[in-house]
């Protein structure tokens, strides 16, 4: 089930180490990473939760991300959270981007450079240091998921050194940690300049909006989980609200989007109809086209003219 080319994983589970709500500037670091991912056209974005989980969901509820909990969140190994995210995205995307939440200051420019590079494992490299985010091809994901040796994620990736490339970037944000508050604050102005981007809120409406990013995510999760309730759990949406959204979408399109099946030994389930799946895929293609056009035109009209640098 591939709806998009590139998915993202943000590990924010450790109650001991992760600080997803640490505010740098006017927003928490988890939002900085989500914005950077979205600016690179990444969908879906999976946030592996644990630390301050309820507030993280509240902060990101309108950002169209998927929440998957790490049940062992008191002191988890980073690789465990990575595996949770990778397992979910396996088979859904051609490439995957991973970062821990505690390294929030890489720029969207760096991320786009990593995505443009060819390699099964692409790691950014600056001032003699490697950092995050790391881009993975779908081919290496099963090997990381299956890794059971010592040394965690670093050792898992090192075990595939012949498939890894280091991409030089001019971005110290790839290794600035939340533990270094002085460096975070010093890098803030530069990072905010890099975050500048046009935002297009693409909706469908007649008298009122009946399709937007949030409903798109609901359809995506129904397709994946075959359950409206499970979809709601993963996107912090109420069950009743989800059905209101689906019913309105079907009334406006004039055809069934979701197929409900009742009964059976395993209970009922819900999935997308063929028309619903076609609608979702076509909408994603429309979003991709508009995203690419908008980024290009913004660069030509604003950056190249010197109105923004």
UniProtKB/TrEMBL annotation:
Keyword terms of this UniProt record: Transferase
Give the matching InterPro entries. Answer: MobA-like_NTP_Trfase (IPR025877), Nucleotide-diphossugar_trans (IPR029044), WH-like_DNA-bd_sf (IPR036388), WH_DNA-bd_sf (IPR036390)
Extract the GO molecular function terms from the UniProt entry.
nucleotidyltransferase activity
Report the residue ranges that make up the MobA-like NTP transferase domain in this protein. Answer: 20-160
Its domain of life? Answer: Bacteria
Protein name as annotated: NTP transferase domain-containing protein
Look up and give the organism this protein is from.
Lacrimispora sp. BS-2
């Amino acid at each position: 089930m591939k709806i998009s080319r590139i998915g993202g994983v943000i590990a924010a589970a450790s109650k001991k180490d992760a600080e997803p709500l640490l505010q740098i500037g006017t927003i928490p670091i988890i939002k900085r990473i989500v914005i950077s991912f979205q600016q690179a056209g990444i969908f879906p974005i999976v946030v592996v939760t644990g630390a301050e989980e309820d507030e993280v969901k509240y902060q990101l509820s309108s950002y169209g991300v998927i929440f998957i909990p790490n049940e062992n969140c008191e002191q988890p190994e980073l690789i465990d959270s990575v595996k949770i995210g990778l397992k979910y995205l396996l088979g859904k995307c051609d490439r995957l981007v991973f970062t821990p939440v505690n390294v929030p200051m890489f720029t969207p420019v760096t991320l786009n450079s990593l995505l443009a590079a060819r390699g099964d494992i692409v790691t950014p490299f600056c001032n003699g240091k490697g950092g995050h985010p790391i881009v993975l091809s779908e081919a290496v994901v099963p090997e990381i998921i299956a890794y059971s040796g010592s040394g965690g994620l670093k050792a898992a990736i090192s075990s595939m050194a012949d498939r890894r490339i280091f991409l030089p970037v001019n971005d110290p944000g790839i290794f600035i940690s939340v533990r270094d508050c002085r460096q975070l604050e010093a890098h803030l102005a530069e990072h905010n300049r890099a975050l500048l981007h046009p935002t297009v809120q693409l909706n469908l409406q007649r008298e009122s909006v009946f399709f937007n990013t949030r409903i798109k995510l609901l359809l995506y999760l129904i397709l994946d989980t075959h359950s409206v309730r499970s979809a709601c759990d993963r996107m912090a949406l109420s069950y009743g609200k989800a059905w209101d959204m689906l019913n309105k979408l079907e009334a406006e399109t004039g055809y069934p989007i979701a197929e409900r099946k009742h009964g059976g030994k395993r209970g009922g389930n819900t999935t997308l109809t063929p028309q619903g799946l076609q609608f979702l895929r076509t909408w994603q293609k429309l979003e991709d086209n508009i995203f690419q056009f908008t980024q290009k035109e913004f660069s030509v009209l604003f950056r190249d003219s010197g109105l923004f640098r």
